[in-house]
Design a protein that fits this description.
246 residues; alpha/beta; 2 domains; seven-stranded mixed beta sheet
């Protein structure tokens, strides 16, 4: 199994999860032509995509969905999110139900509810080849139900959007800062670190921090915050787990 983060952040999000010659995409938030190029660079043919799973329908997660019609790829999204998804051929539209496993070839994908200012945002727990990948992107908090859904993961992709001090000092309008900090906004480095300290068990898990703000975060700061939280559990990066910031 391979996880390849093709894009992450406010400029667009797209993650490929591959098993053998079968790949699913999580979100398609960059132009379709860029997704095609990134896939080919990763050695993945676009016509090998078995499904596109949408966490929510904000533009930075759905911009590249014309790819679905071009290659006849089923698109999976929560019923509420289809209100904001347009242009996907009807026969390719599939509805995700939280907590219900969805089977796509050898993949088992179980959505779980998250907290973001969309109609029905989701995270995803993906099982394939005896491994588990959990993907938790835009969310204002991580609750116990989300943690339960992600327990036992071998790979965790987690949002670490902002540093609160950098956000407070930013030139963002108060309304934007309040939205980001709300329970339906985005995770801070500290929130991501707290969640990961409850998920990482020191079994060599691979952890990817993504969706970092370009203005209100630094990769080194996000990394340090998570490493310090896991160090308090006795875990060392590179020994007990493997952390990347993308």
């Amino acid at each position: 199994m391979m996880v390849n983060i093709l894009a992450g952040g406010s400029g667009g999000n797209c993650i490929a999860v591959r098993s053998g010659n079968i790949t699913i995409l999580i979100d398609a938030g960059i132009p379709a032509a860029k997704i095609e190029r990134h896939l080919l660079d990763a050695g993945i043919r676009p016509d090998e995509i078995a499904g596109i799973f949408i966490t929510h329908a904000h533009k930075d997660h759905v911009k590249g969905l014309p790819l679905a019609n071009k290659y006849h790829i089923p698109v999976y999204a929560a019923e509420g999110e289809w209100k904001d998804i347009h242009g996907v051929d009807e026969y390719l539209q599939c509805t995700l139900v939280p907590s219900k496993p969805h089977y796509v070839r050898r993949f088992v994908v179980t959505p779980f509810e998250t907290h973001h200012d969309a109609y029905e945002p989701l995270g995803l727990a993906i099982e394939v080849d005896g491994k588990k990948v959990s993907i938790c992107l835009d969310t204002g908090l991580v609750d116990d139900e989300m943690l339960d859904a992600m327990q036992g993961s071998d790979i965790i992709v987690m949002e670490a959007n902002h540093d609160p001090d950098m956000l407070a000092a930013s030139d963002y309008p108060d309304s934007v800062r309040e939205r980001i900090l709300s329970d339906r906004g985005h995770l801070s480095n500290q929130q991501a670190a707290e969640a990961l300290s409850r998920l990482v068990q020191g079994r060599g898990e691979r952890v990817y921090l993504t969706h970092l703000s370009r203005k209100n975060n630094l990769p080194a700061l996000a990394r340090m915050t998570v490493e310090q939280a896991l160090k308090r559990k006795g875990f060392k990066n590179g020994t007990h787990y493997h952390l990347e910031v993308v």
